[in-house]
TrEMBL record:
Membrane topology of this protein: Multi-pass membrane protein
Organism: Paracidobacterium acidisoli
Protein name (database record): Carboxypeptidase regulatory-like domain-containing protein
One GO term (biological process): siderophore transmembrane transport
Record flagged with keyword DNA damage: no
MF GO annotations: carboxypeptidase activity; siderophore uptake transmembrane transporter activity
Length: 1117
C-alpha cells in the first residue's frame, strides 16, 4: 500500500480541525426542510423541530427561523419522523419520511391551537417530490437493487433504469474497464463519476469504478444527470452510492446464486452439434448489521452500529478449441518428409523417408522444447482436419468484504468508518495461439477502499462534515512466469527480465509454395507478452460546511484529490519469435533449428530501469473550492446558485520521464521534462523548456451553477425546475502513458526478412545495443503517441427544464428537456498525417516510398504522431419522460428518451478509441468533416422495471382468507423484471486503404447508391444494400458519412419469479428463478463493415447472450 507522506497528513489534520473545505465529489446525505405555520397561514418562529431516524433513533433538534422555516442538512439516507411543537399549539408528528441519497424532502407542518401535549400523527407520502432543488436524477432503492434480475449482480446494470442511460456494448462484467460501456445524457462513456459514501472509487486509468460493490452492501444509489449544485465536479454525470449501516434491529441475509450451461440456450449462430459452452457459476455470501451489543459490557443501541458483508463468486467455464499441434516425433526432430538444411540448402539425410535433424543442430530454443515438450505443446488426440481438440479452463474467483461501523458520541458528534476489499483473479487461455498453461495470461484486479466521515454540529444551523477516502486499485495481466533455469537455457540477453515476465511468444504461419508446410500450428510461449501491471492509488479529502441563515442555506468548502498511475511502459517485454517454414520447409523444424522469420523485443534504453521493466509513475492533482447558496426567495420559489473553481494540475511523471510535442519548431520537436535527455540524446529534436509537464496548468476553470425549483400554486404536487451548469471533465491517466514512452527510456529491436535477409538465429538474440543521440531516421520510421504542448481541461455546458407532477401519494410523472454542449473534448488525432496523394494533387499513390511520404508530412522530423488533442466537440438534445410508482406491493419505473447526439469523435483515445481511419478521424486536416451522429446515439429508448408482489394469499386481494397451508402454496409470490427497447447504434462502412491515405488503417467507403432502396428488406444475410458502397480510388478518402447506418435494435427482457416462505418470527426463505433474455430473442450484433470482406453486410454474431437461467436461495431476517 502507498502511504501518505507527513506533509500530506499534516494538511489533512489541519483541514479536519479548521472545518474549511468542501465535498469534492458526491454527497451521500440528504436534507429535510419545512415551513411551519398556524391554521391561518402565518409563520410560527422559534417552533421546536425534532428530526429522528426511525431505524437508529439518532435525533436533531432545532428551532424555526423568524420566517417559520427550518433546514436539517447532512442526514443519512433512511426513514425519518419530524415532530414540530410550540407553546399553545398541538404537536404534529410526520412519520415515514423516506429520505434518499442527495435529496431534499419537504416536511411542512400546520399547527392547530391547543395543548402541545396533544399530538397529531401524519403519515408521509411513499414518494415525495424534491421541491427545493434544480437537480434531476434517479434514485435506485434497496428493493430494486436486491430484487431486480441482474446477470452477474453488477450494480452498474441498474444505471440503465434511468432516462438517458445507454449501454454501449455487451454485458457488464467484473473487469474494471467494463464500466466504459455506459453513456448517460449524451456524454462520453468516460464522463461518469463514481463515489461510495462521498469519496471517489474511480479507477484513474479508465475512469470507471475500481470494483463492483456487492448489492447486499448498498443502501441505495443515485444517478445524477443534471447536477446543478456546485458541490459536484470532475464529470458531468455522478453515480452516488451509499453503503448499508447497522440499525437498532439485527438484520441480515445469506444467499446463493447458481448458473450452469444446462440452464442456458444455445447461441443463435451455433447450430447442433455445437453445444453451449461449459459453465459453472456460483455467487454466495452474507450480510449482517445491527447495534454493537456485548452483554453486561456495552449496549450500543441508539449509539453504535455495525454492518458486515461478504460476497464470493466462482466461475468455471471452458473455451473449446480445434487446432493442430506438432507430433511427439516432430518435437524430437523426426519428420516423415524432407527437411532442408538452411546452412547448405540441401536436405538433411533421411532413412526410408524419415528425416532426423542432427542433435548438434538443435538450437537452444529447440533444446528447451525437447527437454519438456508437454510443457509447450499438448499431444495430438484426434484425427481429421485438426489433430487436437480440447477445452481450456477459464476459472474466475472473486472475494469481496465490506465492513462499516457508525458511532454517535453525543448530540453534536458522530463518525463512521467503512473498509472494502475486493480480490478478483481470472485465468485467460490463449486459445489457438497457445494450448498449454505456458500460454495463459493471468488477470488479477485488487482493490482496497477506506472511508472516514466525521460530522460535527456547531449549532443547529451550522454543521460540518469531514471526509477522507483512500483507494488503491491494482490490476495485472501477466504471462506464465519463466523460470530462471529456462531463462538461462534460452540464452536471450539484453531484454527486460522481471519476475512478471514470461516466455517468448512463439508463433507459426504457413509459407506459400511449401508442400510440407500447409498446416498452421498452434502457438506457444507467452500469448500476452506485454505484461499489463497498473497500480492506481487515489486519496480523496474534503470538508463540507452547511450554514442555514434566514432564507438561505449556504454550503461551502474545499476538496482535494491526489491520483497516481504506476505501470509498465514497454510492449513486447518477453520477446516474440515467428516461424513460417521458409528456411527448412516446415514451421516446427524451423523452430527446432532456431531459424525465425522475424523476431522482436522491447530492449532497455540507456535510461531504462531494467529491474522494473521501464515502469512509470504518472501523477495528477485536483483542487476545488466552492460555494452554494440555496435561497428561499418566496415560499414557492427556491433559487440554487453556486460557483465552483477547479484547479487541474498538469499531469507529470515522478521521474521526469515525460515528453510533449510542439508544433512551434520547424519539422516538429519534443519538449522533455528531463534536461539530461535533451542534452545527451536530443540531437536538436528533444528540447528542454524547464517544465515537468505540458503546462502551465490551466487557470480560470470556474464552473458556475444556476437553477431554480418552483412549486406551482405553493403546492407539493407540482414542481417546475430548471437551470444551467458548467462541468469540467477529467481525463484518464492512461491517456498520458504514451508521452512517457520514447527513446532513451523505451527501445525495441525488431528483425524481419526485409531488414535482415536470411534466417534470424534465436541463439543470438539480442545483440548488445549501442546508444547515442536520437536519430532522425529512427523518429521518421516510428509511431509516437504524445500530449500536445498546452494542457487544457475539457468541459460540458448542461441545461434543462423539468416539470414534475405527483399524481397520487405513490405515483410521480416527470417530463424534462435536457441539452448539453461539449467543448475541448479529448481525442487522439494523427497530427502528422501526410497530405493527400492522388491525381488531383498530381501525385501517384501507388508509387510512394518512405521518402515521398515523409515529404508530405507537416512535421518531417517524425513519422506518424498520434497527438492527444483537446479539440473535440459534441452536442446533445433530449426529451425524457418518466413514470414512477412506489407502493407496498409495487415498485415501478418506466422511462422514455428521445434524443440526438452529434460529435466529431465519440471516444477519447486509448479506451475504445480509434486514432484515425474509418472509425476515427479520417482526415486530420479536415476534422469538421467527421461531425455526425455519435457512436452511442440511439435516438429512442424505452426502459421498464418493476418489482410486484402478486395480490394472492392471506391478507391479499385474492384468496385473502386462505388457510395457512393453502397460503404456503399460493401466497408469497413476486414477479420482477427489466425490459429495454432501443434503436441500434450507428456504424460506419469501411474500405481498404489502398493508397495509404490513412497510414494503412481502414478508409471509409464511397457511397454509390441507396443503402435501403425501395422494396429492400434488411435481414441478417444482407443488412443493407451492399451494392451501394465501393472502395475509393487509391489515394482518395471515402465520401460516405461517419455513423450513418444503424445496427439492429435492442429488445431485451429479464424476468424473475420469487416465492417467499415465512419460517419463524422475522426469518424468511426466498427462492428465485431468474431469466436473462427471457424470450430468447436474438440480440444481433454489428454487420461486417468492410466492402472488401467476403461477409460484407452479413451479421454473424449476437451482441448479447441468448436466454440464460439462474436459480437462487436467500435467507433473510
Amino acid at each position: 500500500m502507498t502511504f501518505l507522506n507527513i506533509r500530506r497528513w499534516a494538511c489533512l489534520m489541519l483541514l479536519a480541525v479548521a472545518g474549511t473545505g468542501t465535498l469534492l465529489a458526491q454527497n451521500t446525505t440528504g436534507s429535510i426542510v419545512g415551513h411551519v405555520t398556524d391554521t391561518t397561514g402565518a409563520a410560527i418562529p422559534s417552533a421546536q423541530v425534532t428530526v429522528t431516524n426511525q431505524e437508529t433513533s439518532e435525533t436533531r433538534t432545532l428551532a424555526t427561523t423568524p420566517a417559520g422555516d427550518f433546514t436539517v442538512p447532512l442526514l443519512k439516507p433512511g426513514t425519518y419522523k419530524v415532530t414540530v411543537s410550540d407553546a399553545g399549539f398541538e404537536t404534529v408528528t410526520t412519520s415515514g419520511i423516506v429520505l434518499q441519497v442527495d435529496q431534499t424532502v419537504r416536511a411542512d407542518a400546520s399547527l392547530k391551537v391547543g395543548s402541545h401535549q396533544e399530538t397529531v400523527s401524519v403519515s408521509a407520502s411513499a414518494l415525495t417530490l424534491d421541491t427545493d432543488s434544480a437537480s434531476v436524477g434517479q434514485v435506485v432503492s434497496e428493493k430494486q437493487i436486491t430484487e431486480l434480475p441482474l446477470n452477474g449482480r453488477y450494480f452498474t446494470d441498474l444505471i440503465f433504469l434511468a432516462p438517458g442511460a445507454v449501454q454501449t456494448s455487451g454485458e457488464q462484467s467484473n473487469r474494471i474497464e467494463s464500466g466504459n460501456a455506459i453513456s448517460v445524457g449524451g456524454a462520453r462513456t468516460s464522463s461518469n463519476g463514481y463515489t461510495l459514501d462521498g469519496t471517489s472509487i474511480m479507477d484513474v486509468k479508465f475512469n470507471t469504478p475500481a470494483f463492483n460493490l456487492s448489492l447486499d452492501a448498498i443502501q441505495e444509489f443515485k444517478l445524477q444527470t443534471k447536477t446543478y449544485s456546485a458541490a459536484y465536479g470532475y464529470s458531468v454525470n455522478q453515480v452516488t452510492l451509499s453503503s448499508k449501516s447497522g440499525t437498532n434491529t439485527f438484520h441480515g441475509s445469506v444467499f446463493e446464486y447458481l448458473r450452469n450451461n444446462f440452464l442456458d440456450a444455445r447461441n443463435y449462430f451455433n447450430r447442433p452439434p455445437v453445444a453451449v459452452a461449459p459453465l459453472r457459476q456460483n455467487q454466495f455470501g452474507y450480510s449482517l448489521g445491527g447495534p454493537v451489543f456485548i452483554p453486561k459490557i456495552y449496549n450500543g443501541r441508539n449509539r453504535t452500529f455495525f454492518f458486515a458483508n461478504y460476497e464470493g463468486q466462482r466461475i468455471s467455464t471452458k473455451t473449446t478449441v480445434q487446432s493442430n499441434v506438432p507430433t511427439a516425433d516432430q518435437l524430437k526432430g523426426i519428420f516423415t518428409f524432407p527437411i532442408t538444411d538452411p546452412s547448405t540448402g540441401m536436405p538433411f539425410p533421411s532413412t526410408n523417408g524419415v528425416t532426423t535433424i542432427p542433435a548438434d543442430r538443435i538450437s537452444r530454443l529447440g533444446q528447451l522444447v525437447q527437454a519438456k515438450p508437454a510443457f509447450f505443446f499438448p499431444l495430438p488426440n484426434q484425427t481429421g482436419a485438426f489433430n487436437f481438440g480440447g477445452s481450456l479452463p477459464t476459472p474466475t474467483t472473486l472475494d469481496q468484504q465490506n465492513y462499516r461501523i457508525d458511532h454517535t458520541f453525543g448530540p453534536k458528534d458522530s463518525i463512521f468508518f467503512r473498509a472494502t476489499t475486493s480480490d478478483l483473479y481470472s485465468t485467460v487461455p490463449a486459445g489457438a495461439a497457445g494450448l498449454n498453461p505456458v500460454s495463459n495470461s493471468y488477470f488479477s484486479q485488487l482493490a482496497r477502499n477506506y472511508t472516514l466521515v466525521y460530522t460535527h454540529i456547531f449549532t443547529p444551523a451550522l454543521v460540518n462534515q469531514f471526509r477522507f477516502g483512500y483507494l488503491e486499485a491494482l490490476a495485472r495481466q501477466t504471462p506464465y512466469p519463466i523460470t530462471s533455469g529456462d531463462l538461462s537455457a534460452l540464452g536471450i540477453s539484453n531484454i527486460f527480465h522481471t519476475p512478471a515476465d514470461g516466455y517468448p511468444n512463439i508463433g507459426f504461419a504457413t509459407y506459400p509454395g511449401l508442400p510440407n508446410d500447409s498446416i498452421a500450428y498452434a502457438g506457444s510461449g507467452s500469448y500476452i507478452n506485454t505484461p499489463s501491471i497498473g497500480n492506481q492509488p487515489l486519496e480523496d479529502l474534503s470538508d463540507a460546511v452547511s450554514w442555514s441563515h434566514g432564507r438561505h442555506t449556504i454550503n461551502f468548502g474545499y476538496g482535494m484529490q491526489w491520483m497516481q498511475f504506476d505501470t509498465k511502459n514497454d510492449t513486447n517485454l518477453t520477446g516474440s519469435l515467428a516461424f513460417n517454414g521458409q528456411f527448412s520447409g516446415n514451421q516446427i523444424s524451423d523452430m527446432l533449428l532456431g531459424d525465425a522469420d522475424s523476431a522482436g523485443a522491447a530492449t532497455p534504453g540507456p535510461l531504462s530501469n531494467v529491474l522494473t521493466g521501464d515502469s512509470v509513475h504518472l501523477h495528477l492533482r485536483n483542487y476545488a473550492p466552492y460555494i452554494q447558496d440555496d435561497w428561499k426567495a418566496t415560499p414557492s420559489l427556491t433559487i440554487n446558485a453556486g460557483l465552483r473553481y477547479e484547479f487541474h494540475a498538469t499531469p507529470y511523471e515522478g521521474q521526469n520521464q515525460f515528453g510533449w510535442f510542439t508544433h512551434n519548431v520547424p519539422g516538429g520537436a519534443l519538449y522533455v521534462a528531463n534536461p539530461q535527455v535533451a542534452a545527451t540524446y536530443g540531437n536538436g529534436i528533444y528540447l528542454y523548456n524547464g517544465k515537468r509537464g505540458d503546462g502551465p496548468a490551466p487557470w480560470g476553470a470556474f464552473a458556475p451553477r444556476l437553477g431554480f425549483a418552483y412549486r406551482v400554486n405553493n403546492s407539493d404536487k407540482w414542481v417546475v425546475r430548471g437551470g444551467y451548469g458548467l462541468f469540467y471533465d477529467t481525463v484518464g491517466l492512461t491517456e498520458f502513458q504514451g508521452s512517457t514512452s520514447f527513446y532513451p527510456y523505451s527501445n525495441s529491436v525488431n528483425f524481419t526478412q526485409s531488414t535482415s535477409p536470411g534466417p534470424i538465429s534465436t541463439d543470438h538474440l539480442f545483440p548488445a545495443p549501442t546508444f547515442g543521440p536520437v536519430q532522425k531516421s529512427t523518429l521518421q520510421s516510428s509511431l509516437y503517441l504524445f500530449m500536445p504542448q498546452k494542457y487544457k481541461v475539457p468541459y460540458i455546458q448542461d441545461w434543462s427544464l423539468d416539470i414534475q407532477r405527483q399524481l397520487t401519494p405513490t405515483t410521480v410523472l416527470d417530463v424534462d428537456y435536457e441539452g448539453n454542449k461539449g467543448t475541448r473534448l479529448f481525442q487522439r488525432i494523427d497530427t502528422n498525417q501526410p497530405t493527400q496523394c492522388n491525381a488531383a494533387h498530381n501525385c501517384n499513390p501507388l508509387a510512394q516510398t518512405s521518402a515521398t511520404i515523409l515529404a508530405r508530412r507537416p512535421y518531417q522530423n517524425f513519422g506518424e504522431i498520434l497527438e492527444e488533442q483537446f479539440t473535440g466537440w459534441a452536442n446533445y438534445n433530449a426529451m425524457d419522460a418518466k413514470l414512477e410508482r412506489r407502493s407496498t406491493n409495487l415498485t415501478l419505473l418506466a422511462v422514455y428518451t428521445w434524443s440526438k447526439i452529434m460529435d466529431d469523435k465519440s471516444t477519447s483515445a486509448a479506451v475504445g478509441g480509434d486514432a484515425g481511419g474509418a472509425f476515427g478521424v479520417q482526415n486530420a486536416h479536415d476534422i469538421a468533416a467527421d461531425y455526425a451522429r455519435a457512436s452511442y446515439d440511439v435516438g429512442q429508448r424505452f426502459a421498464l422495471s418493476f418489482v410486484a408482489a402478486l395480490p394472492v394469499g392471506r391478507g391479499k386481494r385474492f384468496l385473502g382468507n386462505a388457510s395457512r397451508l393453502t397460503d404456503a402454496v399460493i401466497g408469497g409470490w413476486q414477479a420482477n423484471g427489466i425490459y429495454q427497447l432501443q434503436n441500434g447504434f450507428p456504424f460506419t462502412i469501411s474500405a481498404t486503404d489502398i493508397g495509404g491515405v490513412n497510414e494503412g488503417r481502414s478508409n471509409r467507403a464511397n457511397l454509390v447508391g441507396n443503402p435501403y432502396p425501395q422494396g429492400f428488406h434488411k435481414n441478417i444475410q444482407e443488412w443493407f444494400n451492399k451494392a451501394a458502397f465501393a472502395n475509393p480510388a487509391p489515394g482518395d478518402f471515402g465520401d460516405s458519412e461517419r455513423n450513418f447506418l444503424r445496427e439492429p435494435k435492442l429488445n431485451l427482457m429479464n424476468f424473475s419469479l420469487f416465492k417467499d416462505f415465512s419460517l419463524v418470527d422475522r426469518l424468511r426463505v426466498e427462492t428465485r428463478l431468474e431469466s436473462f433474455n427471457t424470450f430468447n430473442h436474438p440480440q444481433f450484433g454489428l454487420p461486417s463493415q468492410n466492402v472488401t470482406s467476403s461477409t460484407f453486410g452479413t451479421i454473424s454474431s449476437t451482441a448479447r447472450d441468448n436466454r440464460e437461467l439462474q436459480v437462487a436461495v436467500r435467507l433473510t431476517f
